Amino acid sequence: MPVIQYREAIRQALAEEIERDPNVVVMGEEVGQFNGAYKVTEGLLERFGPTRIVDTPISEAGFVGLGVGASMLGIRPVIELMFWSFYSVCFDQILNNAANIRYMSGGQIACPIVIRGPANGGTNVGATHSHTPENILASHPGVKVVVPATPYDAKGLLKSAIRDNDPVMYLENTMLYGERGEVPAGDYLVPLGKADIKREGTDLSIVSYGRALVQSLAAAHLLEQEHNISAEVVDLRSIRPLDMDTLLASVRRTHRILVVEEQKPFCGVGAQLAFMIQSEAFDELDAPIARLSTIDGPSIYSPQVEGEQLPNPQRIVRAAVAILD
Amino acid sequence: MNQGESGTGRQDFGGAPANLGLSADQRVGLYRSMVRIRRFEERSLRAYQAKKIGGFLHLYIGQEAVAVGCCSLMGRNDHVITAYRDHGHAIAVGMEMNALMAELYGKVTGCSKGKGGSMHFFDPARNFWGGHGIVGGQVPLGAGLAYALKYKGLDGACMTFMGDGAVNQGAVHEAYNLAALWDLPVVFVIENNGYSMGTSQARSSAGELGRRAEAYGMAWGVCDGHDVYEVRAFMDGFLEAARTKCKPSLVELRTYRYRGHSVADPDKTYRDKAEVEEYRRTKDPIQVFQKILIAEKALDEAGAEKIDSEARAEAETAAEFAEASPFPDVSDIQRDVYWEADNPSERKSGGRLFFN
Fold first, then answer.
1. Candidate from A61, A68, A241 with C-beta closest to B353
2. Partner A, chain B 104-143, Cβ-Cβ below 8 Å
3. Model confidence at B10, in pLDDT bands (50, 70, 90)?
4. pLDDT value at position B347?
5. CB-based contact (8 Å) between A142 and chain B?
6. Does A159 touch chain B (CB under 8 A)?
7. What's residue A325's pLDDT?
8. Mean pLDDT of all residues in B268-293
């Protein structure tokens, strides 16, 4: 199987869906002539032309809202936010309009839009560019939220998202764009709302998604090598819909849970997971549910410190060992 | 096509190209549509006062010639989107009073099954896309509808209505820019009733509202909005330019609302009652058009009276229908949220969509 970068996997998904469905349009800042701020869309303008690959001005409320309106008439816009952090300037368009249009019309209108882009810290770009809004997005009924961690999942989830008739928020990670993995060359789908056991284990379950999942896999390796601890690693992949069945099955196998998220702790995804796990599998737990989040403060610039603010393998190992102590 | 000022004084617009071809029945139809809007609004106000309607109720009384004039020009591929003062547009595009009144009453027979309320009427089958509550938030959506028309190669235009209170929102300017930059077939229509809630135009907006189009290289124009013939004559060229040349424009229709911003507005702080009475006496869109039609002999007083009593009866019947209709069920709260949840046999995703 070909080994390609995460960004190339996203690009393949975009290209295949553009070829499959004439209503798919890729739109965003610098997606065309510039070849993508992170080179995700590199070469697509040359291949598909300016009708399918549309450069926008820096005007998120304008072009996201335009995408919502176009989707109501059957276009399938895939809108790139250069950073998901910029959702704050188009919040009304995403979370009032895209999220509610179906409901407020009594089910008469569908909004098949995908909004995608990176949502992460770790690149020393400071607090304004390091938001991880998956919890905020997922707290709005009407939208779906996915966060792929691997190139394989990135391609399969994006293809599913583009074919979905609901608005899907697709959160990437600039730190993963260059990561490589096996990705089939042709058409395949990863369904939304299906978690994936990325590593089997017996002593505890680390539940994570996105880049924190990659860090968790590295931590699981260290736990085995240095502490003789067998960690299962569950990749949620999708925040809403949420695959609780896979998660609860893992709880029943290991009886100890560590949630790892690149979120600030207050009302983060991990808080929701912890509530649901204790509510639905209380008797299965042999220890309090533990949670490792980004250290609670605005994202620090200092390159020497930011890595310690985020989940990293060392922090995850310490949290895991503490559960088993 | 920069028309600038037009239509001061009592010109006859019945002979304008947009109106010349109208049959007597069609002319009377415009009148009937305006009367139906007004009687619907008056009846809904009584229902609100009787506590049958919750939340907000933004009445369109006084502005009828704008929605009727504009929407009567719609062809098969023309679309409409507006803000929260949306009852007039809904009736003008042909929505039935029963479904509208039932929506106000929060009933399951409402046009949005009781999930939208007064500010959120929709009828995509009639090319009507709402009904939007956040000031200016619908304007990028209107540009998007126009984008879709152009993308699909359809000869249509999207009339994107907003109030004069919306023009200072950033999203509105972003939509202007995209429409002009990409030559989208959209006509942005400012229904200028003089007040953004309780703040007059002079206290809220610098410069001329329509002229802001010049900064974007868009055609623009200003017109009185109380004579339905004049509205049609004025809008016709802008719509045609959008449909056939993908040329966007920004138009300002000067109108007036007789009631407060919403029924919660006591309307005592920001304008004089004499101002309302002066408009009602000289520019009431229904009275103005009734006089025109009588002069044209398309209508007589008995005919006007009949239309009025029919409209009152229709609104009354709608209130009875709404009253007799059931409320939605609590289980309806989680319907119409996700397409996939509403179409379980076609669902592709797994996992939970709802969390209680």
1. A241
2. 110-116, 120, 122-125, 129-134, 137-143
3. low
4. 98
5. yes
6. no
7. 86
8. 96
Q: Give the A:B interface size as CB pairs under 8 Å.
A: 196
Q: And the tokens for B157?
A: 């235009």
Q: Which residues pair with B160 in a beta bridge?
A: B81, B188
Do residue B351 and residue A242 have CB atoms under 8 angstroms apart?
yes
Nearest-CA distance from B352 to chain A in Å? 5
Task: Establish whether domains A3-182 and A196-324 are of one fold.
Answer: yes
* CB of A235 closer than 8 Å to CB of A149: yes
- Is residue A131 annotated as part of the catalytic site, yes or no? no
Q: Where are the alpha helices (DSSP H) in chain A?
A: 6-20, 44-48, 60-72, 91, 99-104, 134-138, 151-163, 211-227, 244-254, 269-281, 303-309, 313-324
Give per-residue pLDDT as tens, B164-219. 999 999 999 999 999 999 999 999 999 999 999 999 999 999 999 999 999 999 99
In chain A, domain spans: 3-182, 196-324
B209 contacts B192 by C-beta, under 8 angstroms: yes
Please give the CATH architecture assigned to the domain spanning A3-182.
3-Layer(aba) Sandwich (3.40)
Question: What's the angle, vertex CA A49, arms to CA A43 and CA A52, rounded to 5?
Answer: 100
Strand A144-146 relative to strand A238-240, pairing: antiparallel
C-beta atoms surrounding B8 within 10 Å: 8
A35 touches chain B (CB under 8 A): no
Beta-carbon separation of A97 and B348 below 8 A: no
Interfacial A residues in 259-298 facing B (CB < 8 Å): 272, 276
Per-residue pLDDT band for B12 (boundaries 50, 70, 90) equals confident
Inter-chain touch B148–A51, beta carbons under 8 Å = no
Q: What ipTM was predicted for this assembly?
A: 0.97
Residue of A24, A66, A159, A272 to mutate for B, most B C-beta atoms under 10 A: A66
The Cα of A150 is separated from the nearest Cα of chain B by a number of Å equal to: 19
> How far is Cα B218 from Cα B251, in angstroms, rounded to an integer?
10
Query: Is A108 a residue whose pLDDT tops 60?
Result: yes
Chain CA centroid to CA B355, Å: 37
Residue of chain B minimizing CA distance to A68? B141
Pair A257, A251: CB distance under 8 Å: yes
Over 90: is that where the pLDDT of B334 sits? Answer: yes
Q: Top-level CATH class of B17-346?
A: alpha beta
Query: Between A73, A106, A163, which is nearest B145 by CB?
Result: A73
Q: How many CB atoms lie within 10 A of CB B15?
A: 10
Note the pLDDT tens digit of each residue in A151-189. Answer: 999 999 999 999 999 999 999 999 999 999 999 999 999
Residue B310 has pLDDT above 80, yes or no: yes
Q: Which CATH number fits domain A196-324: 2.40.50.140, 3.40.50.720, 3.40.50.920, 2.60.120.560?
A: 3.40.50.920
Q: Inform me whether the pLDDT recorded for B4 exceeds 80.
A: no
The dihedral sign for the CA sequence A308, A314, A315, A316: positive
Whether B13 has a pLDDT exceeding 60, the answer reads yes
Assess whether A29 carries a catalytic annotation: no
Q: Which residues of A touch B144 (CB under 8 A)?
A: 65-73
Choose the catalytic residue: A16, A29, A60, A172. Answer: A60
